[in-house]
Amino acid sequence: MRATEVPTIAGAYLFEPTPYADERGFFCRTFDADVVRSVGLDPDAFVQDSVSRSVRGVLRGLHLRSGAGEAKLVRCSYGKIFDVVVDLRADSPTYRNVASFELSGETQVTLYIPAGCAHGFQALTETADTSYRIDRPHDPAEDVTIAFDDPELAVPWPLPAVSMSQRDREAPSLAEVLKHRES
Predict the structure, then answer these.
(1) Largest alpha-carbon pair distance within the chain?
(2) Residues 146, 165: Cα–Cα separation, whole Å
(3) In 3D, which of 9, 183, 25 has the Cα closest to residue 106?
(4) Average pLDDT over residues 16-34
């Protein structure tokens, strides 16, 4: 497994496993504490694992947490997703940058998203399972959602959004969220 820094989002990393494939399929390590530690992250900081299953076109996000934020490791364990990160850390050299990635069950690449960044994804296959590992217990009172189609962000979602939660459909613009955070 190797770690590669994401140049457009300061502090974000891609963890790329080395799969062993043969006629049976493949095997790979999807988390390695030593590799995580090698880029300055604490592997013991992650306290919750979750998984979501989505059908093609489902869009989830853009989500972040208020307060101390939430760092997360995200991996598509089955299928394929279009994954998006928006840097909303005012003191970051990549503030307001948007980065997108294709994550898939074929590659098992894990994306590390620093606290203070918004995250969202869209399922590209009929079924897509997305695994999350977060560094703080989830508190719904800290949930913040930004409109997935905010023109300021201009995220190039590859498919029409066929389904999303009511919270995501009614999300405010980035400008509204930032205004609320400053007050």
Answers:
(1) 58
(2) 13
(3) 25
(4) 92
178: enclosing H helix or E strand: helix 174-182
Q: What are phi and psi of 13, to 5 degrees?
A: -140, 150
Alpha-carbon Rg of the chain, whole angstroms? Answer: 16
Averaged pLDDT, 76-83: 98
* Beta pairing class for 80-87 and 110-113: unpaired
What whole-number distance in Å separates Cα of residue 167 and Cα of residue 151?
Answer: 18
- pLDDT bucket at 2, cuts 50 / 70 / 90: very high
20 is catalytic: no
Whether residue 63 lies in the annotated active site: yes
Tally the residues of the chain. Answer: 183
- Are 61 and 168 spatial neighbours (Cβ–Cβ below 8 Å)? yes
Of 13, 63, 112, 119, the catalytic one is: 63
Domain 2-182 grouped into CATH 2.60.120.10: yes
Other C-beta atoms lying within 10 Å of the C-beta of residue 139: 11
Residue spans of the domains in the chain: they are 2-182
List the structure tokens of 64. Answer: 């972040």
Average pLDDT in the 1-22 region? 95
Question: Which of these is catalytic: 13, 112, 119, 132?
Answer: 132
What sign for the dihedral angle of Cα 173, 179, 181, 183? negative
